[in-house]
Amino acid sequence: MKIAVCFKPIADYARLSQKDWKWDEGHRVDTSFIRRIFNCFEESALEMALTLSGTSEHASDLIELTALTVDNQQGDLFLKQLLAVGYNYGVRIQCKKNPDLRFTPLVMSHLISAYIKKQGHDLVILGMQGGEGDNGQTGFLLAERLGWPCIGEVSRIIRDESHDCLKVTSRIDGGTLVQTVHLPMVLIMGHSLDSPYLRVPNLKQKLRAKKKQVIVISDIELGTYIDPQTNHALTNAPTPENDKTLMDLRKPQASQSCVFIEGENAMEQAQQLYDQYLKERLPL
Amino acid sequence: MKTAVVLFADSPSLNRQTGEINAMLSNLKTNFSNAELWLFYKDAQPEIFPEIHFAPLYGALADGTLADKALSIIRLVAMEHEHVSESYLQWLQHLMDQYPMELLVFPSDGLGAELATRLAFRLNGSSCLQVEGLDLTSQKPKVKKPVYGNNLTAEFVLEYPPYCLSVAKQACAPAKMIPGESIKKEIFPLHKPGFDWVKEMVMIPDKPDTGLADSDLVLILGQGVKSKETMDVLQGIANTIGAQLGASRPVVMNAWIDMNRLIGASGLIISPKICIAAGVSGTGVFSMGIKCSEFIVAINIDSKAPIFQIADIGIVGDLQDVLCELEKIIKAEKDMPGSAESRIETK
Fold first, then answer.
1. Which fold has domain A2-234?
2. N or C terminus: which one in chain B shows less Cβ crowding within 10 Å?
3. What's the complex ipTM?
4. Domain-by-domain residue ranges, chain A?
């Protein structure tokens, strides 16, 4: 079974202060000075796939894992880490002209599908949402482009007794769905208690990963080229257009001014909180 | 603009989902030439319908005419597989073929998001999820949605019809159910599409509602809670002061509390009278879940935590110390005979 897990490193927004939320004429926010991290859903997906690959009992059902990202050279750091913890391949799609891919899930899904079609994976796992655009659409669009079914808000993926099936648990409105499904399939990871965090490589794994190479493929090699002016892919395949154009960014309404309760200790603070603010508001 | 709202009659959140759609539609200053409800159902055909506000609730339209609130028609579609998105997509494609719409509005849940995205793709239209605001006064629709982890809002112009939107989760008044006798209806018989990728499917309904979404007093715990033991102590405090307990993602991921108590963009959106956020840093994704609360108290050891930006009252200190003291005060008030005016009764 060949599994590809797609991820996009994102800036750790929690480390930006209020004044850092400003943008240039291209509506780009400078986040270059803060560290990048895995998006939480993709971190879950990456760990889930590792767990899944660890459960193969026979040589016939070995799982080959590929970590896939569309990024510049900075993405290699993340791919190296994934190679260290057990991914067989770390692949980075590099767009030659550095187009703005923040709000273009149509283009993103086009790039991923071009790679998946070439490599013949059985399963693609993505995160539900994340990154600058918070588009939440790449997984669905990838399923459309591949002509595969997909399941959203996945929380657990385990092997079924029959080798060609997986048992997939997902969240739906008002409940949980457990499905036994045939592949190929696109799975879109939501919150997962099974694999909230990615494992950390040990020293030996890190050293071994140093010898492994990240595979870099350009958009042109994938038979597609993303025009940085329009973000349209120039290709023989059905053209992915941008279905929306960014007009403006806004900060949320000016925050209320928070009144801080002073006080010598917790007792005084709690007393003030109760007397001055809670007493009148608490339901009688 | 020819518009249809797509809803699922069997969804446990139907009233809330319709309320969210109403919140968006009622801000529009546009009349709809044709306003339809496409309602999917399984088993029993619905006899009451969610009330949709297809026009400004109060006042006239931008051009001075009076808004027509009425639905033109309800199209009822029977489903065999309520959890297989492909079966909805086939129906939606068929409906769009028969009754082409320019705007399709989907609910905020995962199914709504999936259908909006995939249908727009199949029809060469445009889609956008988590839509907080819609403006139809120009030739092309403008939409607002949160971006950058809910830290910013972006405005987009949608380029190609049909425009398929799923609305943002938000605190809203749930929609009423109405008999809808006077509204024209069309009923589509069940058809049984075959799907070969699902071998077996079991649906496990959620545990009964926690009551968290409707509670007046909510205590939300974040990663400032360092252990399961502390969590248990705080659960006790919540019980004493009559608060429902919610949590941010790190706490839920430690499995210290049920997933259905997760607050934030990908969990519950709540708007209680009082919200106490303790040990919550206040990321954009989390803040989305409580920002509509009437009164927010934040307790955090770090005075620079972003949570203080949306709080009315802030306490810099140890959450357990402060909450233990608060519990003592409220307990004393409760136990003190004859002080009814300061008594707190739990619901």
1. Rossmann fold (3.40.50)
2. C
3. 0.93
4. 2-234
